[in-house]
Specification:
There is one protein chain. The chain is α/β, with parallel strands linked by helices. Helices cover 29% and strands 28% of the residues. It is built from 9 helices and 16 strands. Strands 3, 5, 6, 7, 8, 15 and 16 form a 7-stranded mixed sheet that branches. It has a 6-stranded parallel sheet with strand order 11-10-9-12-13-14, sandwiched between helices. Helix 2 packs across helix 3 and helix 2 crosses helix 7. The longest helix is centred in the middle third of the chain and has 24 residues. The protein is globular and about 60 Å long.
Length: 328
């Protein structure tokens, strides 16, 4: 295959352009494993790259897409051989390294994780970076000492990808999950995932008090900004919030009060450069702790040709749950 289909992003006079085109295999970047990509997914960061709304892409031309699952075609890496089923998320794909919206990808073997037993390639991409990030957040809360006995937990941006998976996982683990969303119409959807309560995001969008009434023992936040500030001010003594997103902005208008008067911890979650041991642990936990029927409920399938359209939708808050992209 001298060329293959790919979503290519190019620099333009004003911003960038993204189009489905033929990409020359000779232009693939260095790597010791070549993968036949079968499934990818659409994350918030992919939407930013596809639309050019943020400077996510750092080299041109770029193949968009930060996640893939597929089958190894060729490998000079000692851990991988032709025929192996693998998953790759993060590591700069779609940003500094040619990404996943393509029929082929060439990457470093050290970036790959074996497809967990019991998950199909499609399942893995229904989880994707969003679900992987949600599980890293859960693992961080557990490491902090949180358990269902600690009290309720809150999940913001709950109808999105990270929030949907976090809600499903935390509820299965036995937590009383309070979900926050700006879409009241999604209340039944969130309750079907296991949410015990659904609150309007406006409750968390005003200026944060240094300390407010204690409402939850912990939480998973993909929103940032004022929402995260409010979460911290309402976290119970000794609790923790796992921060993994910035949909509302990178600022954090808070004070030290939650940290030094209630012993609250802010746990930073990064999925891009996450080392292999916690990466593997998160994928194994996703295989065991995420109800596959709920995963099916939160997933919509699109084709490679529909990716750009849906990239704009995810930024507009019009996407529920997870989007899988069928590559071949």
């Amino acid at each position: 295959m001298a060329t293959f289909k790919a979503i290519r992003i190019d620099k333009a006079d004003k911003g960038t352009t993204a189009a489905l085109t033929q990409f020359d295999e000779a232009e693939l970047m260095d790597g010791d494993v070549t993968v036949r990509v079968e499934w990818s997914t659409l994350n918030y960061k992919d939407g930013l790259a596809l639309t050019g709304k943020a400077p996510v892409v750092r080299r041109f031309p770029m193949i968009a897409g930060i996640d893939f699952a597929g089958t190894v075609e060729a490998s000079s890496h000692p851990q991988w051989k032709a025929g192996d089923k693998v998953v790759c998320t993060g590591w700069g794909m779609g940003e500094t390294h040619l990404g996943a919206y393509a029929e082929k990808a060439r990457v470093k073997g050290d970036w790959l994780v074996a497809l967990p037993q019991g998950l199909s390639a499609r399942d893995a991409m229904a989880i994707g970076t969003a679900g992987f990030t949600a599980m890293l957040s859960v693992l961080a809360l557990e490491k902090h000492g949180l358990s269902p006995k600690s009290g309720p937990v809150v999940v913001t941006g709950a109808a999105g990808g990270v929030g949907s998976v976090a809600t499903a996982v935390l509820s299965k683990l036995g937590y009383h999950v309070i979900t926050s969303t700006g879409r009241a119409s999604e209340a039944d959807y969130l309750k079907s995932l296991g949410a015990a309560e659904v609150i309007d995001r406006n409750e968390l969008s005003g200026p944060a008090k240094p300390l407010a009434k204690e409402r939850w023992a912990g939480g998973v936040d993909s929103v940032g900004s004022t929402t995260l500030a409010n979460l911290l001010s309402m976290t119970k003594y000794g609790g923790a919030i796992a921060a993994c997103g910035l949909a509302a902005g990178m600022d954090l208008p808070t004070s030290v009060a939650p940290f030094i008067l209630r012993g609250v911890c802010l746990l930073g979650i990064d999925s891009v450069m996450c080392p292999l041991p916690p990466r593997k642990a998160a994928w194994q936990r996703l295989a065991s702790d995420l109800d596959r029927s709920k995963l099916s409920e939160i997933t919509t399938e699109i084709s490679l040709g529909e990716v750009s359209e849906w990239g704009a939708k995810i930024l507009a808050g019009q996407v529920r749950g997870r989007i899988v992209v069928k590559i071949v």
